[in-house]
User: Fold this.
Amino acid sequence: MKNSLLKHHSRRLVAVCCLILAVVVGCTEGRSWLHEIPRKLELAPTLSIGTRSRPLELLPPILVEEHVPVVEVSPQPQTMVEKLRCLEGNWLEVGRSVANRPLEAMLIGRGVNRVLFIGGIHGDEPEGLAITEWFTEELRANSELTQQVTVLIVRNLNPDGTSSGRRMNQNGVDLNRNFPAKNWDPVVKTARFNPGKKPMSEPETQVAVQIIHEFKPVRVLVMHATTGRPMNNYDGPGKALAQSLSRFNKYMVSDSIGYPTPGSLGSWVGNDLDTPIITLELPRKISPENAWNANKLALIEMLKFEEAQPGERELP
Ligand SMILES: [Zn+2]
Assistant:
């Protein structure tokens, strides 16, 4: 009995080691980008073994020291989403802001439905950033949530604005007027809504657009905050999704925030790409705890929402 148990465990150990090797080699072979990762990474929490009939088991984390090359490799083109896939469950720098702050993203889950979550885009609306951290921890801790879905989280699209407490980025551009939407408008009505010199003139917008082109989300949620009524604002075919979220966070559902938003992320994704997008307007100055309690189930609903969406397909 003892022997067979030992045998069983050693077989499992070998299987686990092989799996780790396969994943690490598969994600690093022929690629040099891992050299650039500037922080400690916990690679293993996302590795797992098991089958459908048998629950997955998480492995203990393996720490990779700062700036230590993972493997010597020759350079090869690789998409941002593929890099995120290789480091599933970890923040990865996917670009830099105007003032050279890192723009970070994380991919979690292996499900066919691809959901994009953006923690913040206006620097004077930090309320969504705390929720983003809590939501990420929830996803990492609860693998059941990501069985049917792959979530790509952009931690904060405007770290320069957050640092200065300003709506705009370091160039004074409102990133949420800088997307390549058909309704982009070059007129600067007020400094707060400066759309930039042209669509995608800003590096932060470029990163978001690249992520959306590569990831091809079936739905998108972006966090904002308002001094007006909190709402699940939707663009494009997002009404049913907004109504579904409203069952949990009780915020009003509307396709307008009360004024035109040319060049906004909502205009581009919702109207031009025909993809459901929610601009979730939290109450300004709400505490992180209250914001999380009010929205946790709504965010989970965002993952589970079951209306058939066109264009769903496997990740590249
Ligand atoms: Zn906003």
Observations:
- The domain at 79-304 is CATH 3.40.630.10 (Aminopeptidase).
